[in-house]
Design a protein that fits this description.
About 30% of the residues lie in helices and about 25% in strands. With about 280 residues, the chain is an alpha/beta fold.
């Protein structure tokens, strides 16, 4: 039981501020911390926390940040063998988080989109059940979706914030499971008839829409402090639950629990304790 996660591997600098800055305004940094991040990496770590094998496809730069990012992932139980080390610097993202947990992101660039599909091992998808794609270059995502689909894997896709500026039609066409929030849903014109669409609504829960029915979960009402990475934890929870044989209704409840718990933690990654998730779902 293994998931191949593909996309960005970053170094995140999280700054808690008194308010998100408006144009020509000034905010005060109340706390600052740094750690590994990136949507694909966050999902892989969350899956490992939930007891599911996770391999990570992406690219990091040479130098200390790339090494620290790889070390953190390996320590969390993620298979970093497929990661490609590229000459240059590991991508850095600055995450501004206000008191309500809302987030603004500043991207300082780097090599997180330098991953080469043709350099990935042919054996990559052996013994894997799911390929989870995130907001990487559209041509890279489409090529991986094609390879994963041909290998018989479930293709899962969470395009993220940059969906409105990128053409992911070729990837969505091969999707079995598509994750969207409210804003992203408005950017997708067409979804395959047999694709299940998960619509994330933050603290208000989520829906799972398939060819046969619509499921809805209201969420858990936990007070969030940082929504960074909550969507990644949500995706990991749903995938982990389904791989363990949970029905769609329980998988949606588990996904909401993982997202809610992640939102109560500062930073892009929350340690997801399986017992705590189970207590929240069953309680």
């Amino acid at each position: 039981m293994r998931v191949v996660c593909a996309g960005h591997v970053n170094w995140d600098v999280t700054m808690r501020v008194d308010s998100l800055p408006a144009p020509d305004a000034e905010s005060v940094v109340e706390d600052r911390r740094a750690s590994g991040g990136g949507s694909a990496a966050n999902v892989a770590v969350a899956l490992a926390d939930l007891g599911v094998g996770a391999s990570l496809l992406g690219s990091v730069g040479t130098g200390a940040r790339g090494e620290r990012a790889r070390d953190e992932l390996s320590a969390a139980g993620v298979d970093t063998g497929p990661l490609q080390v590229v000459e240059g610097r590991t991508a850095v993202k600055y995450l501004l988080v206000d008191g309500a947990g809302e987030v603004a992101v500043v991207d300082d660039g780097g090599v997180n989109e330098s991953f080469r599909v043709d350099a990935a091992p042919r054996s990559l998808f052996e013994d894997a059940a799911v390929c989870h794609l995130t907001g990487q270059r559209p041509d890279t995502a489409a090529a991986l979706a094609e390879r994963a689909s041909a290998a018989g894997l479930t293709v899962s896709f969470d395009p993220g914030r940059r969906l409105d500026g990128r053409d992911y039609a070729a990837t969505i066409e091969r999707c079995d499971l598509l994750f969207l929030n409210r804003r992203e849903a408005g950017c997708v014109d067409r979804v395959p008839a047999d694709c299940r669409v998960v619509r994330k609504r933050g603290a208000d829960g989520a829906t799972l829409e398939g060819p046969d029915r619509l499921l809805e979960h209201p969420g858990y009402g936990l007070e969030g402090v940082d929504t960074t990475g909550a969507g990644d934890a949500f995706a990991a929870g749903l995938l982990a639950a389904r791989l363990r044989g949970a029905d769609a209704e329980r998988a949606l409840a588990v996904a909401n629990a993982c997202g809610a718990l992640a939102a109560t933690t500062v930073g892009p990654r929350a340690e997801l304790d399986r017992e705590r998730v189970r207590e929240l779902v069953d309680g």
